[in-house]
Amino acid sequence: MEIPYTVEVRPDTGLTNPKLGIWLFLASEVMLFGALFSSYILLRVSAPVWPHGYEELSVPLATFNTVVLITSSVTMVMSWLQLKLRNLARARMYLWLTVTLALVFMVVKFFEYGAHFAEGEYPSHSTFVAIYFTLTGLHGLHVLGGVVANGYLAGPGAAMWRTEPERYTNRVEVAGLYWHFVDLVWIFLFPALYLL
Amino acid sequence: MDNVASVGKAHAAEAHGPHHEEELSFIRKYVFSLDHKWIGIQYGITSLLFLLFGFTLMMLMRWQLAFPGRPIPLIGQFLGEANAPGGIMLPEFYNQLGAMHGTIMVFMGVVPLAVGAFGNFVVPLQIGAPDMAFPRLNMLSYWVYFVGGTIMLASFFVPGGAANSGWTSYTPLSVIATQGQTYWLIGMVFLITSSLLGSINFIVTIIQLRAPGLTWMRLPFFVWAQLVTAFLLLLAFPPLEAAGVLQLMDRLAGTSFFLPSGLVVGNRPLEVSGGGSPLLWQHLFWFLAHPEVYVLILPAMGIVAEIIANNTRKPLWGYKAMVYSVIFLGFMSFGVWAHHMFFTGMGTVISAFFQTTTMIISIPSVIILSALFLSLYGGSIRFTTPMLFALAFLPMFGIGGLTGLPLGLASSDIPLHDTYYVIGHFHYVVAPGTLLALFGGIYYWFPKATGRKMNDLLGKIHFWGSFFCINGVFMPMFIQGLAGVNRRLYDGGMQYAQAQPVLHWNTFMSYSAWGLGLFQIFFIINFFWSIKAGRKASDNVWSATTLEWAAAPSPPPHGNFLTPPAVYRGPYEYSVPGHDADYVPQNQPVQV
Question: For residue B481, what is the enclosing H or E element?
């Protein structure tokens, strides 16, 4: 027995199941990062001294990473657009580009972390460094999750295009929604940690 | 996942030939099942075992409270020298049992039973859906829950034993606690993830997979309760996950999110960077744990509503008011959490805010309970076993709710805070309240799951025994609490002068608890015996109106319905004038 509305839209709600599912998942993610941001604010306002982000962290690297992530969001949309235009090869190319940009982001992050470790700045160093590692670490895990999802869709998952092109397009759209969210979290993290 | 599943299907098809595509291997049918009914049963059995285990921990603790310092008979020798030398329970072990009792009962017992088991089994059937919206995600939620539960159980065997900082894991105590706390946190992350996946699945299923004609105001109240519950799980659990991650960082990476500066442990200053906030944990924890209270109670209310409508043979009184109340309650539950924290010195302004919201949130609960009471008026009540449990729920939840009011007001909370009064209050909500309702639900839907009814005589012995014993356990707690006995004392308050006049209740409560344990044996025997030899039940054994009874066989096949049902009327059309039967199923077309 088939489960209805996995591909086609339910008329009275205007949604497919996966799309509603991912929005709900993102709502829970908002609560997860919201709680961490609230903790950050609470810890910061109650601390007698709190360093400025731009003194401790590398703003140029983070700016570069911001550009990288925003670009990857654009390539993600392009991929979906190409699927709508029925061009699988182009769509996969854009998906791989998204994955590459995500990996570039992670490599930059790797060097940033390395520089902190080299200076002996482990999470136990101070609450500022601790919240920095926790927030960016959790965000990094989300980026890796996006790499896995998009890599799967660009690689083995693309086989679905031959049998169910519509469903495959929806999958890319859903992965895209997640990816934009990961991007959005960084848009908040960047000023909160690096600029303020 | 997709590939694995389709490969599995292809294999099955090869093995059995093209005509038996539905034939699944034992593993795919009973272990890694994708069928919501079987997953619901898996949840049910696992959570009932956890409930029994959590209750056993409490029965051990009750020995220590009734007879402090005396060796535990029979079981004592098996608890290990590190926990109970000579069978006498050590305070550290008592703390482990207390923390794990709360954790197991809430996160591994009641929630998986109320949401995972009843939600999974009943919701798709009641809305006329072939399955949950995401069957693989559903399977994954169960197995993530299973892993989380296993980690929790394993923590009893690590050096230092299980978590011992209370089920609330207040910081900084929990950060400096033994290794078991780390297992607790990791286990919680699994349990939270499981609930999150499950809640997404429930919401999508209810919104997307309703049968044609099943509009919002035709949904059975149970489905409404599950929908609001799923939203609470979805939005309240992530902050606890965040808090869990922060506490893990504190414990493993040496950070100080919850450790203030200048903390001295064992006469030595703790070598951490400091500057953290112990109160932050309490805010994050209660931001989850207060909505969690409604997660515990709403499915029970839903079950009771179904049973009462069915057994009074009349529509629920004020169905719409109940629906609006449950939605309002869901929203409000996010704004009351700090009424658990009046004692922390938040300040009078914040206390005043939270006591006001707390008084407001009691209104929808009272509306729902009143509507259920008024539904009884004028009904021709059938005193079936599930109905006895549902009827008992009403006064029990009433007592639990009303005794909560003094705790919600800051000034009267001060003398009651952290006494047995609090334990009595929330246990009346969750144990005589929710648990009795959940047992009622098991008796009510058992014929749907197995095609056989549970035995009524054993069921009634189980009910009356449990009802009296459970009140014997919790009613004296109000007396002790009002006398000022602290809730966490290892010897039950022997060293405190103010506890002396009420100390004798401890033995009475303990005997009640063990009696409660004995009466569960009737349920266990009934449960297993009825699966094999219970009286055969027809598809609609209770003459009910909702789809799971009216449109699906017992037990329902894979895919649930022989023909996809359509809905033409509201959920509780009982005793409608002008009809032959005293009930009109939701899928019966309207005669023009």
Answer: helix B456-482
pLDDT at B23 over 80: no
Q: Residue A35's closest chain B neighbor by CA?
A: B239
**Terminal C-alpha separation, chain A:** 55
Q: Please name the member of A1, A35, A43 whose beta carbon is closest to the beta carbon of B238.
A: A35
Rounded to the nearest angstrom, the minimum Cα separation between B233 and chain A is 9
Q: Are B591 and B334 in contact (CB under 8 A)?
A: no
Question: Among candidates B112, B130, B121, which has minimal Cα distance to B47?
Answer: B112
**A19 near B CB under 8 A:** no
Q: pLDDT tens, B308-361? A: 999 999 999 999 999 999 999 999 999 999 999 998 888 899 999 999 999 999
Binned at pLDDT 50, 70 and 90, residue B305 comes out as very high
pTM beyond 0.80: yes
Range of the domain at B428: 38-260+273-550
Q: Are the C-beta atoms of residues A101 and A70 closer than 8 Å to each other?
A: no
Q: Which residue of B has its CA nearest to A122?
A: B253
Taking a C-beta distance cutoff of 8 angstroms, is the pair A158, A99 a contact?
no
Mean pLDDT of all residues in chain A?
95
- CATH topology classification for A17-44+58-195: Four Helix Bundle (Hemerythrin (Met), subunit A) (1.20.120)
Residue A174 distance to chain B (closest CA, Å):
15
Q: How many CB pairs under 8 A join A and B?
A: 132
Q: Which residue carries 């509507």 as its tokens?
A: B371
Contact assignment for B209 to A4 by CB distance below 8 Å: yes
Q: Considering only residues 438 to 497 of chain B, which have any Cβ-Cβ distance to chain A shorter than 8 Å?
A: none
The SS3 of residue B21 is coil
In which element (H, E) is residue B265 found? strand B264-265
**Min Cα separation B130/chain A (Å):** 7
Q: Is the dihedral of CA A116, A121, A122, A126 positive or negative?
A: negative
Q: How far apart are CA A133 and CA A136, in angstroms?
A: 5
Q: Residue B310's pLDDT is what? A: 96
Please tell me which residue of chain B has the smallest CA distance to A19: B204
pLDDT on residue A85: 96
Total Cβ atoms within 10 A of residue A82 = 20
The Cα–Cα gap between A186 and A106 comes to 12
Q: Can you give the pLDDT at residue B30?
A: 86
Angle, helix B348-376 to helix B385-402, in steps of 10 degrees: 150
Judged by DSSP in three states, B91 sits in: helix
**Would an 8 Å CB–CB cutoff place A41 in contact with chain B?**
no
The answer as to whether B562 is a domain residue is no
- Scanning B158-197 for CB atoms below 8 A from A yields 196
Torsion sign over Cα A2, A8, A14, A17:
positive
Q: Do A130 and B559 touch (CB under 8 A)?
A: no
Q: Which residue of B has its CA nearest to A47?
A: B275
**Which of B24, B35, B208 to mutate: most A Cβ within 10 Å?**
B208
Q: Please state the separation of Cα B509 from the chain's center in Å.
A: 23
Cβ pair B200:A15 closer than 8 A: no
- Compare all CA atoms of chain A with the CA of B3 and give the residue at the minimum distance: A157
Nearest to B430 by CA among B167, B194, B125, B68: B167
CA pair distance B451, A55, nearest whole angstrom: 70
Which CATH number goes with the domain that contains B68?
1.20.210.10
Instruction: Decide if B152 contacts B108 (C-beta within 8 A).
Output: yes
Counted domains in chain B: 1
Q: Report residue B496 as tokens.
A: 């405190």
How far apart CA B97 and CA B60 sit, in angstroms, is 8
Report angle CA B95, B97, B98 to the nearest 5 degrees. 65
Does residue B579 lie in a domain region? no
